[in-house]
Structure formats: C-alpha cells, structure tokens
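Q: Fold this one first, please.
A: Sequence and structure below.
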Amino acid sequence: WTNLLNHQENAQRLIELSNYVNKYYELQNLSSHSIDVGFSKIFELISSVPLQIQVQQANDIINSLRMKHVASINHPIVPRDEYQEDFEDGQLVFPKICDAFIPQAFKVLRKIEAKTRLEEESSWSSLPRRNDLGLFLLNYLSSPYSTESPLLILGHPGSGKSLLTKIMAAQWMSSKFIVVRVSLRNVNADANIMTQIEDTLHHITGVSLDSWIKLSPLFKVSPPIVILDGYDELLQASGQIFSGYIKDAQRLQIHESEQGRPLRVIITSRMTLIDKVTVPQGTTVLRLLEFDNNQCGLWCDIWNKANAYFFTKNEIQKFKLPDGGNRSADSILNLARQPLLLLMLAIYDTENNALRDCKNLDRTKLYDSLIRRFVLRELRKESSFLECECDEREAMMLVEIQRLSAVALGMYNRRKLHILLGEINDDLSFFGLDYRVSLSSKGAMSQADMLIGSFFFIHKSKSRHSSGVDYTHKENIAFEFLHNTFCEFLAANFIVRSAVDQVKLLLATKSNHAFVSIKEKILNTSDGIGRYWFASFVFTPLFSRFVVLEMIREWLPHVLKESDISESFFVTTLEDLVFNQLE
C-alpha cells in the first residue's frame, strides 16, 4: 500500500514537471513574436513549478508581503498625488502597473575585467539586444550562480527600473519564491543591508522581526529574493557615497549560503552613478534599453484603451506618435523611447492633441512641460518638499531647473556637447546654485554628483578629453544630456531668463525714484549687471548655435507673458542695456 502511494506521488510529480516544461517552452516560443505585458505569463510559469513539499500554511509575514506586492502593481503607473490635477472627475485614467508594464529589451554582460566601465556606451555597443527579459530573469534566479553575487540592473532615469522590480516582486512572489523589495530611498542609509531588509519587513507587515533567521524554515521550499531598488536613490537621499555597497551585498550572500540559506540579491541603479560603487568581478550586469517601435505602439494602445472615455468626452483623438520625417517629429520619436518620457508625451498630447501638428509644434512649451514634470517627480521623493506650501514648491522647482540650465549654459559657452564633473562643480558655485550637502565619515557627494543623478544625463564615452588628463581622475569625468534637445532648450532658458531678470530689475527702478542710483549703476557701470548676464552673453555669440537661437525666439514670448512684460518694452530696455554696456 505504501509503495502504491509512493508511486502515485511520483506520478503526480512527473505530471507537474511535464506541465512546467510544456509551459516553459510555450512561453519561450511566444517571446520571439509577442510581448508579455505585466509578466502575466511568467507568473503562470512560476506558479506551475512543481513542489517537492506542499506548504500547508504560509507565515503571516509572507502573506503580508504577498498582499503588499500584489497591491502595489494594482496602483496606477504614477502615484495619484504626482498628477493630482489629472485625476479629477472625467479626466485622465492612468492604467494599473500590472496592465501597463511593457518588459524592456536589454543587454547583459558579466563583468570580468576590472577596467570595464559600466557607465560607458562602448562597454555595451557590441552586445546583442535581447527581448526575453522575463525568461532571462527566471533562468538566472533559478540557477545556483545567482546566490554567489548580486544581479545588477542598470538603466537611465525613467527607463522603468522601479516598475520592473514591483512587477517582479508581485509575480515572483508565490509558494516558489519569497521576495522582499527594499526601496533604498526609504531606509536608513547607514544601516547594514540585513537591517535594511528587516526594517522593510517590519514596515510592510507591522511585525517586529528581530532576525531574518526566523523565516529560514520557509527558505528550503521558497528561496528568498531580495531586491534592493535604487542604489542611486541611496546616494541622493543621504548625500553620501557607499562605494562598497554591492560588495556588502555579496558578502551577505556568501554568509547566508554558508548557513544553508542561499540568498538571491538584485540591485538597481541609474547608469550615471554606477561609477561611484565597486562592482565585484564576475557580477552579472543587465542594462535596460529604450523602447522600440513595437513597444511604443503597444504602450500607446494600452493608454488609449484606458482613456477611451476621456477622449470621447473631450473630443480628443487617441494618442499617436508622429511618423517622423521632419526635425520636430524625429525629436519626439527619440524622446518617446524612454518609458517615462513616453508617458509625459501622452499627458502633454491630451491638451488639444498638441503633438499632432509637429511642423507647427511649439517645442519650447513641450520641453518645459517635460522638464517640469520630471523635476517635480524627483523633488516629490523628498519629504521636506512635500511639507512645503505651493509657492515654496514652485520656487524649489525653478531653482532645480536653473541648475540644469546652468549646466547646459556651461556646455554652450565652452562650445562642447559635454561637460566635465569639475566644470559643473565650478559653474554651480559661480552662480550660487550649490546644494546643501552634509559631510560624513563615508564622504559626501559633490555638487555635480547630486545634479547628475537627478536628470537625463549620460557619461560621455571617451577616456581622455581636451585637457589631456586621464579619465580616471574624477574631476575629468564628462557628461552629456541624454537628449541634446534638452541641452539646447535649457541653455536658451538660462539666457532668456537672465535677460528678462535684468529688464525686470530696471522696470522696478523706473517705478521708484529711490532706486535711481541703482538704475544708473546698471546702465553705466561694468559691474552694475549681475554675473548671470555676462555668463549668458559675453563668452559665446548667439549666432554660433542656430538651434539655441531658435529656442530663444520661441521661448521668450512665454517668459515675457509669465513676467507680465510687453515685448516692445523688453526690446527697448534690452537695447538700452546693450548700448550702455558697449559704451
């Protein structure tokens, strides 16, 4: 009788194994010609993994984790408070994460040589583009190798790193895996990794977990996966550099394996800040890529389906990317490759289908809208920003945009498409736009590091620059904007606002006789005008960058309207300023 029962159990296991193998190859075949939105097929595959032991009752902590992960992917793709004005009755609908997540294409390498620079394009250019992200992650996390060192996932800002980790946490979380997703921006930066994990578990479940070991009985059945999301966020939130963080994660894995508790660790980061950390040799590194035409098209279909009622009610056409063929259309298509910018373009288009007529598109309004939304997205991560009044928030946002504009002006004045780290530090100091950074024993990030990590910057792929100084010197690391159109607009923004600010100052002196001496100083002395003015107009002729000049012409009327200054008054006053300075 016992032998018969054993035979039945073995037969059942064979059936389960056969079902799993069939589902695996079915998904592998589908991956070549379809996109697994939200990793729903991966979830089915993981759920079909045969169990040797059936867990009768899951731990309360694990149940809480599962509910948290599932709830998180049923939230809109952007937090409700991030676009509150768009959530009003009858307004936009933001699809759920599980319905809108499009798996990214990727490239992957194993860091063998210490000299490999992960932040450089040259390290990735020869590698093939892959489209089987879900299967790759499943295969990697199912292999013994995944317990020996962390998997490092890199991407540019807005590439969908956090959405990927949320989807993974929910879809991998089952009786087969235990997943803990740690948002590094929200943890104690000075705590060790195990404490960060345990604190996250306590925050999610409300259960005080004095030791990770208490979950170990479940680990033999459901191997643990820890996702440390946002190494770059850890740096930006604390202003400190944790160069040994990935090595610390690897040491934790080694320790857990020695104790019979193999641990899989995934760490995500923006590419621009990965040079701050030591990546152990042998680490598998995955880089998320931009959307292709199929991914963009599928995302647009999901967006349009979610907002069908909104479009009908407001007599707006569905969102559609332009076909290309002119500079404005090509620029929009280039921006849309980044998932976050694609979302922002879709939001922008809801205002009377503003992107439809690309030939007559006001590019400066588009870029200003995109930059404002992105900067607000970054600032909202700070609790101090959320506690401020609306006027204070607006002021903080404008200062951040001014910092970005100062970097763009630095490239413009130096007549280069890149800028060195040391030059950014110098320029921010020159314009009085420094961040407040507190020093610590671990060292502080530089002013440039703080800014570079907060926007669409990439490393310039050259080992030497005109200075002839070796690239390894941190002050000579070069950066450029991910999209040069941002650089051109931000340079124009700095120049326009510098000119308008001087005109506003003269306007104030004209309306008050007590300021006559200030007016005379501005008009008739070389040091009467602020350094912003000279930085904008002295070093590089405006005609040397035709696109920047075009941007100035497009953007100026908007800034004048915002400042309540007529164009005729501006031109007359600007002429007075220029002629008096020439004299």
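Q: Good. Now the second chain.
A: Here it is, same layout.
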Amino acid sequence: MTDETKNPAGEPARPAGSCCSPSGSCGTDGTADVQVGSFTTVYEVKGMTCGHCEGAVSAEISEIAGVGSVEADAATGRVTVVSAAPLDEEAVRAAVDEAGYELAGTA
C-alpha cells in the first residue's frame, strides 16, 4: 500500500506547479536550479558590505538542513535561500548571527 495522492481521474497527482504539460515541465529547458517542492525565501540582512560578507552569510546559512542554495547580495542586503521546506526563521537568524550580521526579517 502506498500513500500516493490521486487526482480526480484516479491518476497519480503531479506536484504543485507542474500541470503545464504531461512531462511536468512548464516549457523550460530543464536547466532551472529550483526543483519542484522547493521554497524560495528572501531575507534582509544588515551589515553586509562586500563579497566577503556575502560569502560568510552564505556559508553559515548553507549549513542549515534542507538548504539547497544561498545567494547573498551585499548591495541590496538581501539573501535568497532555496530550501526543500520552509526554514525556521530562528535557525536562519542564528546562522546570520554566527556570520557576524543581523537578520532584519524576510523581504
């Protein structure tokens, strides 16, 4: 017995966001970094001024379980995180603090 979800026609349900074609793609060439079921969250981080800052914040956040990618931008103070599931904001706050910066919240 499986826990597979079925659609009204009795076929296996596709993950959210993949209803555009039978192959599950929405017309992309398959090179997108974001996978089905991933979550993208943009955080505001205070104190980043350079590439070293970006690297320090990215490295610490990357250590959180479930994080797939991190992109920090010192110019905007924003950090974009792609994860398998929503992240605990306190875990992100602790990681940013460990890097020496302050999490202001989500953008």
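Q: Anything worth noting on the second one?
A: The mean pLDDT is 80.
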